[in-house]
Design a protein that fits this description.
Layout: E1 14-17, H1 21-33, E2 41-44, H2 48-55, E3 60-62, H3 65-70, E4 74-77, H4 84-91, E5 100-103, H5 110-117, E6 122-126, E7 136-142, H6 148-159, E8 162-166, H7 172-180, H8 182-199, H9 204-225, H10 229-236, H11 242-252, H12 255-274
Parallel strand pairs: 1-2, 1-4, 2-3, 4-5, 5-6, 7-8
Antiparallel strand pairs: 6-7
């Protein structure tokens, strides 16, 4: 068995197969954080618009994916899930065991990625769309021959665009249901809070600003204080006050149960899609 050569953390080249918004978010994040300099990042795309998006902050843009693979040590596949098999299979002759491979494609399992690539030095990562503003929640799972050093390296890359966790791949459908789909649930909540503010007499722009900042602040409290959300809720809800009256309405409407059911429904849908 060939033992992978450790990738030098201070000089490796990072390649992106697929130059869409997720790839751009990751690339910008790692450059901004200083984890990888722009001169050590490569990608390829036919669209002039996408080429300019990457070259505007110093990334080297090649003409073909083959060039990206040949000139990179770590290769991130950020193409649409339905394209992953074709793209990985086409590049297989160049995907040597000395190259660390990463996939951010939702629903595509490590066992398939490893088969298509011809080796198991693969890491699967499930980020979410807040990567675009450096606030992603990313979960990663290591393939059979990916080392702890490989895992640490990829954690540092995705740590540049948010927070990262490691988990068994069997949990990824639930991860998709919670953090993958979760931003959409929160956007609905922000919109509903803003609409409530308008219904109560607030101007639309003020209501939306207050709703968005309130959700941001509440999330920061949950993350930074380490307190259970129930404790934080109780601290706001004074006896006989306005907040407990509002909470009473949420409970009557089954608010918590609806959110729980949403996560479970999205998880089940992810399971269905991954079986195809």
């Amino acid at each position: 068995m060939t033992i992978p050569i450790p990738i030098p953390a201070d000089s490796f080249k990072l390649g992106f197969i697929g130059a869409g918004n997720m790839a751009e978010s990751i690339a910008r994040g790692v450059v901004k954080s200083g984890v990888v300099s722009a001169s050590r990042i490569r990608t390829a795309h036919r669209s002039l618009h996408r080429k300019q998006a990457f070259s505007s902050f110093g990334v080297h843009v090649f003409d073909t994916n083959e060039q990206v693979v040949e000139d990179s040590d770590v290769i991130v596949f950020s193409v649409k899930p339905q394209m992953v098999k074709e793209v990985v299979s086409q590049l297989r002759p160049l995907l040597t065991k000395q190259k660390l491979l990463v996939s951010v494609a939702a629903g595509v399992k490590l066992v398939d990625l490893q088969e298509w690539a011809g080796h198991s030095r693969f890491i699967r990562v499930m980020p979410n769309t807040p990567a675009a503003v450096g606030q992603a929640a990313s979960v990663m799972s290591l393939g059979e021959t990916a080392t702890e050093e490989d895992g640490d390296l990829i954690a540092s890359l995705f740590g540049a665009i948010g927070k990262t966790w490691r988990a068994d791949e069997k949990l990824f459908d639930a991860v998709t249901g919670l953090s993958g789909s979760g931003p959409a649930y929160i956007y609905l909540a922000i919109e509903a809070l803003a609409d409530g503010g308008v219904a109560a007499g607030l101007p639309r722009d003020l209501a939306l600003g207050l709703a968005s900042q309130t959700v941001l602040g509440a999330a920061a409290m949950a993350v930074n204080t380490g307190k259970h959300p129930g404790q934080l809720k109780d601290a706001v809800a004074s006896p006989g006050g306005t907040t407990i009256a509002g909470i009473h309405e949420l409970e009557k409407g089954g608010f918590r149960g609806i959110l729980m059911n949403s996560v479970v429904a999205a998880t089940n849908r992810s399971r269905e899609m991954s079986k195809r």
